[in-house]
Write a structure and sequence with these properties.
With about 450 residues, the chain is of the alpha+beta class. It is built from twelve helices and 21 strands.
């Protein structure tokens, strides 16, 4: 018994609608003739959804659902992405004690009301990966367990989500009372981050300022000529890599040592000592004042068998100009602190990384080599270390591509007059369109269980 088809008009109710990803998914699948009832409270998301879903009827706050002027029995499809903050492992994990996550029970009330009038209504509920006891509660209300899909299979973003739906349900067991969803996992399309990066010029506003780079706690190693203020500086404690630098006096420094230590003359430290790599791989003896045992990366030289002259073994950060490009010197890399055994991850030109919570002591997986981390509902700090050695945040278009929003739809979204900040928030809150399309594509292949 089919509730919707591409040939007949049907009615959709999208709860916690956000930017209207349910409508985007249906339209991209070829469904054209449907009315779209949207419940959302964010004015920016409402503006986007209304533009993208031409037959949108906006209802407002879900808490006031009993006041909505709807023919409830005519609703054929209900979609909901109830707030996940209470269940997310990135949040406080208050579960149903979080007032936002309690809104799940409002969804249940609405769904049960529609079912009493239209038993064949299709529903789709999405939420984050959560503790099994909380998942079991939702499963109990929905009547079947969720399917687990990681959107990395169809996009360049790792996004593990749970989907409860009565699409493609089957039953087994002696009494036929074991209901499960028969929708298979999507095929891996092999999409990676480089596939979503903009190829033309990116507006300068997305490149990070020196102040912002400092706040990210980034260390830069190696030394070609670069274009946005990655420069040599006085070496600092706490850099990581392959070799040990220790201070040694210059001949000039040895000659004036007594006068310098008695403070009878003033001299810059760089003139009396220089950092040189030790050949034995050991550090100098640690003392309460010694802060010059620095771990850095030695740039491997083909001509010198990996042993370069001192001027190439430098540390770089964001305060000046680098030395000239040398053909046998490696491209610069940046070191991002993370909670691993090494304590950092190396990011090379062309790669992306997660710059969220730069001072976190527990953050891991910052390098986004092939797949991005999961977009969150805030202004993204997913960053791209460009091939011209600059750091920029992913643009709204790139974040939209991570959520597999069709390019023409992205054009409309980016021309709606909504700020980048709000767009980033919507992308983080939104659904991955290709994942939703995969689930909805099985509507025409199965009948609903009554």
């Amino acid at each position: 018994m089919m509730a919707i088809s591409k040939n007949n008009h049907f009615n959709v109710l999208s709860l916690f609608d956000g930017m209207g990803c349910l409508g985007i998914s249906l339209t991209d699948l070829g469904y054209k003739d449907f009315s779209y009832y949207s419940s959302e409270v964010n004015k920016h998301a409402m503006k986007i959804s209304a533009k993208l879903n031409k037959n949108s009827i906006q209802l407002g706050n879900i808490k006031k659902w009993k006041e909505w002027d709807i023919d409830w029995g005519s609703i054929d499809l209900v979609g909901a992405g109830s707030p996940c903050q209470g269940f997310s492992f990135a949040g406080k994990k208050l579960a149903f004690n979080d007032p936002r996550s309690k809104l799940f029970f409002v969804f249940v009330d609405i769904l049960n009301h529609i079912k009493s009038l239209n038993p064949n209504v299709i529903f789709l509920l999405e939420n984050v990966k959560m503790k099994s006891e909380h998942e079991d509660v939702i499963t109990g209300y929905c009547g079947m367990p969720p399917i687990r899909i990681d959107s990395k299979l169809v996009s360049a973003q790792s996004r593990k989500r749970l989907y409860w739906t009565n699409i493609a349900n089957e039953s087994d067991g002696i009494l036929g009372d074991n209901v499960y969803c028969a929708i298979p996992q999507p095929k891996d399309r092999g999409v990676v981050i480089r596939d979503i990066l903009e190829t033309g010029k990116v507006h300068r506003k997305y490149y990070l300022s020196e102040k912002m780079l400092k706040n990210l706690n980034i260390k830069v190693i190696s030394a070609p000529s670069i274009t946005n203020s990655l420069i040599p500086h006085e070496p600092e404690e706490g850099l990581f890599s392959d070799s040990i630098l220790t201070p040694k006096r210059t001949e000039y420094g040895k000659a004036i040592r007594k006068e310098y230590e008695s403070k009878s003359i003033k001299e810059k430290r760089k003139n009396i000592s220089q950092l040189e790599p030790r050949s034995d791989g050991k550090s100098n003896t640690l003392t309460t004042v010694q802060k010059d045992n620095l771990v850095i990366q030695i740039n491997s030289s083909i001509d010198s068998g990996g042993k370069q002259p001192y001027q190439h073994d430098r540390i770089y950060d964001i305060n000046g100009i680098s030395p000239c490009l040398n053909t046998d010197i490696r491209s610069p890399a940046i070191l991002i602190p993370e909670a691993t055994k090494k304590g950092y991850v190396q990011v090379n030109p062309g790669q992306c990384f997660d710059g969220e919570h730069p001072d976190s002591k527990t953050r891991r997986g910052r390098l986004m080599d092939k797949k991005s981390n999961c977009l969150m509902a805030n202004e993204t700090r997913f960053l791209h270390f460009t091939n011209d050695y600059r750091v920029r945040r992913l643009t709204p278009r790139e974040c939209g591509r991570l959520q597999t929003i069709p390019e023409k739809v992205l054009d409309d979204m980016l021309n709606c007059g909504v700020s980048d900040t709000q767009l980033y928030k919507m992308f983080g809150n939104g659904w991955n369109v290709e994942t939703i399309k995969h689930i909805l594509s099985y509507i025409t292949q199965y009948e609903l269980l009554s």
